[in-house]
Every structure is written in C-alpha cells, then in structure tokens.
Amino acid sequence: MKRHSSIVAVVLLILVGAAGTQSASASSVRTLNENSANKTYAVKVGSHLTLTLHSMFWSLSPSAKNSGVSQVGAVLAKPILPGPSAPNGCGLPGMGCGIQTWNFVAKKSGTYVIAASRTSCGEALQCTGSQGVYSVTVRVLK
Q1: First to last CA, the chain
Q2: Cα(46)–Cα(104) distance, rounded to whole angstroms?
Q3: In 10 A of CB 131, how many CB atoms?
Q4: Are 60 and 73 in contact, with CB atoms under 8 Å apart?
Q5: Mean pLDDT value of segment 12-25
Q6: Dihedral over Cα of 83, 87, 92, 94: its sign
Q7: Residue 4 covered by a domain
Q8: Does the residue 17 lie in any domain?
Q9: What is the DSSP letter of 38?
Q10: Does some domain include residue 60?
C-alpha cells in the first residue's frame, strides 16, 4: 500500500509541475500582426514575441534588430505562388503574396519600437499613406 501511495504522489507532482510549466511558457509569448500596429504591449524580460506580416514586401527596420527586443534567427518567409488555388488577390505574379514571420526575445527593460516598411503594395502598386509603414511599441518590464 505504501508503494502505491508513493507512485500516486510522484504522478501528481509530475502533473502539477507540467501544468505550471505550460501556463508559464504560454504567458511569456506575445503574437503580433497587422492588427497590432500602432499599439503598445507590455512584456517581461525573457518574453518571446512573434511578428507575422502578410506580404513578402515588408522589410524589418535596422533599429528593430539592435535593441532590447532582439531578433532571434532569420525571417521565416512563406511565399504564396500565383495560380488557380491561390487566395483572392494572389493570382498574378508580383503581388507579393505570402507571410513573413520574425521572432524576438525581450532582453532588457525599456521601451522599444519594432518597425517595418515596404514601398510596394502589390503588382507595380506603390504604397500610399500608412500602407507602407508598420510599427509596434514594446515596453519590457523587469
């Protein structure tokens, strides 16, 4: 009986530990996209951020690469090739259809801006107004 109680106690400890780890890691990830533009987000040091923009024409600003919120790894680019099965607006070459994803880690406290820009907003279509700029402010807390 004593051995059975010990096994149950070990299993409960493993389950409680796994649940605590899962919720802690889930709360330390922030996902950003076009809807996050011009907003401010607070995260803790060590948090991970993922920025996904839906166009192959975006370029990350150099200042976003050298701050307290540092890019981790290379951009993950997934172009969408034109064709009959492509989403609406992606049927022609040169539309810039695709998804780019950048990963960041918050390394030191402060306020930082992640910015990107593009000059083309489609096949030979120059961006106008705010279409060509993206920025989000990240406040990193201790």
Answers
A1: 48
A2: 10
A3: 15
A4: no
A5: 31
A6: negative
A7: no
A8: no
A9: T
A10: yes
Q: Which amino acid is at 42?
A: A
Give the pLDDT band of residue 22 (cuts 50, 70, 90).
very low
Q: 67 versus 131: which is more confidently predicted?
A: 131
Q: Does 137 score more than 80 pLDDT?
A: yes
Q: Is residue 86 part of a domain?
A: yes
Q: Identify the CATH number of the domain in which residue 33 sits.
A: 2.60.40.2020
- Token reading at 76: 């993950």
- Predicted pLDDT at 61: 86
84's torsion region: left (phi>0), alpha (psi -120 to 50) or beta?
alpha
Q: How far apart are CA 24 and CA 26, in angstroms?
A: 5
DSSP three-state, residue 132: helix
Closest CA to 102 of 50, 63, 141: 50
Measured CA to CA, the distance from residue 65 to residue 115 in angstroms comes to 10
Under the banding of pLDDT at 50, 70 and 90, the label for residue 66 is low
Burial of 117 (0-12, 13-18, 19+ CB in 10 A): middle
| Dihedral pair phi/psi, residue 21, rounded to 5° | -65, -45
